[in-house]
Write a structure and sequence with these properties.
By secondary structure, this protein is α+β, with helices and mostly antiparallel strands. It has one domain (6-51). 16% of the residues lie in helices and 38% in strands. The chain has one helix at residues 43-51, and strands spanning 6-10, 22-29, 32-39. The protein has a 3-stranded mixed β-sheet with strand order 1-3-2, with helices on one face.
Length: 56
Amino acid sequence: MDALQPQAVMCSYCKARPAAGAVRTLEAWEGRLTVTWHDKRCPHHLADRVLAGKEP
């Protein structure tokens, strides 16, 4: 089995990069793995947490 090679993606809203204070969302599908970076207050990150059942 081949390991998935992650692809880093910058959030189109907050433009966060892998740096101190940034958070990430992982997504795997069809043999791909993406890592999207967000600012902690980014609405896209909050939406990802809601969809994952981590927020009420």
